[in-house]
Design a protein that fits this description.
The protein has about 300 residues and is mainly beta. The protein has a domain of about 200 residues: Jelly Rolls (Sandwich), CATH 2.60.120.200. Helices cover about 5% and strands about 40% of the residues. The chain is built from 2 helices and 19 strands. Strands 5, 7, 8, 10, 15, 16, 17 and 19 form an 8-stranded antiparallel sheet that branches. It has a 7-stranded antiparallel sheet with strand order 6-9-18-11-12-13-14. A two-stranded antiparallel sheet has the order 1-2. Strand 1 and strand 2 form a beta hairpin. The longest helix is centred in the last third of the chain and has 6 residues. It starts with about 25 loop residues before the first strand and ends in a 5-residue tail after the last strand.
Length: about 300
């Protein structure tokens, strides 16, 4: 028929089989000539060395020694058999998807430095700071450690607050949140009893007052749903915001009050900064009436989403 059939066992048109032992392989040698590649040793893998196939030890990168960050306090799930459809595990208490930390509001991991006649109390899942009438001081509460990842380039601090006493009247009291490295390096959002919002920053001992603008209404400030937020954006600028949520949830819309580009502050306030909350005297004379603010929630993140 004019068709040439290959002979049995021809191995590709008469190729001489170079294999001699079990496990041998055939590789292309000089000019592609069939060459025997002996079986490798235990744990070796076939790779390339100097442009030719070779058996080399399997290399497995060492696991990270970094201690995993806790997601929160363990919570009890639904006690069912694994085969049931309603078998679930509860998320850790305080865990919020997309957030580094949702504080448990017990005060654990926070330190208070109290000013004269200004108290700070953690109770009933909230932080209450009260400056008595006649006070000329501030009390601060700061996280014992930074809540920020070492590689963070953007981060947020957000607090849900309720002005319980002292709303309105002449300017005399303030509530502050922000990031604090030391007394010479920090950035703070200031909310006042006149319902204005400002930002103070200090870098290498040099303080800048970035001004105050109008904020929420009295009803929003005293309704228990007001959130204050200070953000460092990826380009190093600082944004201050406020918003009103519902039933304890974060706002779905925010009002930005400040956008600050201060290179010195960006450099001075880095990822070692601690979360900072402070309240009391504004600095324009002793308080004529008590000033009380409840902090109902604290969230920090360096993942870009609260």
């Amino acid at each position: 028929m004019g068709v040439r059939r290959g002979s049995r066992g021809g191995g590709g048109g008469g190729m001489v089989n170079p294999m001699t032992d079990p496990g041998d392989l055939i590789v292309g040698g000089v000019a592609g000539a069939p060459t025997r590649q002996p079986v490798g040793g235990e744990g070796e893998v076939l790779s390339i060395a100097g442009g030719s196939p070779a058996w080399t030890p399997l290399s497995i990168p060492a696991l990270s020694s970094t201690t995993p960050a806790a997601l929160g306090v363990a919570a009890v799930g639904v006690g069912t058999t694994a085969a049931r459809a309603d078998h679930v595990h509860a998320l850790p208490t305080g865990f919020v998807a997309g957030a580094t930390t949702a504080e448990d509001m017990t005060g654990t991991g926070w330190t208070t430095v109290a000013g004269t006649n200004v108290t700070a109390t953690w109770a009933s899942s909230k932080l209450t700071i009260t400056a008595a009438s006649g006070s000329s001081a501030l009390t601060n509460v700061s996280s014992d450690t930074s809540r920020l990842g070492a590689s963070a380039s953007t981060w947020d601090l957000c607090c849900r607050v309720d002005v319980v006493a002292g709303d309105g009247g002449s300017l005399q009291a303030q509530f502050l949140i922000g990031y604090y490295v030391d007394s010479n390096n920090y950035m703070l959002l200031s909310y006042t009893n006149t319902r204005t919002i400002g930002v103070f920053s200090k870098a290498a001992g040099s303080t800048t007052d970035h001004g105050f603008v109008s904020g929420p209404s009295s009803g929003q400030a005293t309704g228990g749903e007001m959130w204050l937020r200070l953000t460092r954006l990826s380009n190093g600028t600082i944004a201050a915001w406020w918003g009103v949520g519902t039933s304890g949830a974060l706002p779905t819309a925010w009002t930005r009050t400040h956008l600050i580009d201060r290179a010195a502050m960006t450099a001075a306030v880095g990822t070692t900064a601690k979360s900072w909350i402070e309240s009391g005297w504004f600095g324009l004379g002793a308080l004529s009436t008590a000033w009380t603010v409840d902090v109902l929630a604290i969230r920090t993140t360096w993942q870009g989403s609260l």
